[in-house]
Amino acid sequence: MIIAMMRILHLADVHLGASFASFGPHAADRAESVLAAFRKVPEVAAEQGIDAVLVAGDLFDSARPSDRIAAEAREVFRRLLEVTPAVFAVPGNHDPLVIPGPYTDLPEPVHVFSRPEPGEPVSVETEAGPLHVYGFAYDFAHNPDPLSDFRRTEAEGVHVALLHGAVRDAPHWSGGNSLRLAPEDLAVLEVDYVALGDYHRFRPPAEFAADGSLPACYCGSFAGLDHTETGPHGMVRAEVVAGEPPRVELVSSGVPEVQDLADLDVSACTDELEVVERVAAGAAPGALPVVTLTGQTEFALDPEKVEAGLLARFPYARVRDRTRYYDSQRLGELASRDDVIGHLARLGLDRIRQAADDDEVHLRERALRKALRAMGAT
Question: What is the mean pLDDT of residues 94-104?
Fold first, then answer.
């Protein structure tokens, strides 16, 4: 017997209509980049030969998006239905189901799971064979433990659970109003693929069970929502065969990624312009760099000046300053002077030595550097 492989496009946490406030002046451009990338999802589905599309919640950033955002979503789903009639969605914790609302306005062939508990799956015939999708609109007040009602049918074909929730070992498990899950909850579903939304990092099945026995996957957010969501983001192309572990691949959304350059030792740099060059050399073309500066500098580094230099080259950049200056030779020379600058340097060093912890050391040193720069003594 020939076993058909089903190609599923799994996406979640697009957060259409989000403010992207942490991107500062770049926020509006970031929102437009996400919207432009979302408009291309139908083309991605066609190029990837997709049999079914699963949207695992938080398509919108709120339950009441603007008319423009709602209209953009309707148009994308209309075009998705031209690629495949098998399109499914569940609401998330950011965009719970309201009537009327953006989910109820999607084109009618899109199946939006609106009941607060799982029932019989929605079954469709695809080019790859029968597909059975289970989902529900989580509502803690109505049913705090909806998976206890889950029942898998015995119909032939591929069985998929579509859920928006926080699995226990994810960092955000204990907070928020999401459905809270344990790995063992997912294991007993006995489906061929669990399409998850809510956690914003891609987590393939191997991260749930190394032996492939738990076919769950977080596709992650469609694009980084703030500067902490670094690295590649997008959607998952899952190849699913009934009774076998799924194969998944992260497909980039095409939105410029926030690139974490991690710790960059700038001890050898002589000024902020050289620091900017070092950071820019390590950033990928088109990326939005986030960097932590470390090391012992011989000048009173100004992180705001470094960030301004990067913003002249990149649409967005973020600089975290963890450099040291207080035990530099240059500061020692300043502290030895018999003038106002020397007094300031000695006073600042005394306060740094009295600091209770590393965070206070950093805060007091930064204040000293600013004071010295204001006096032109760096």
Answer: 90
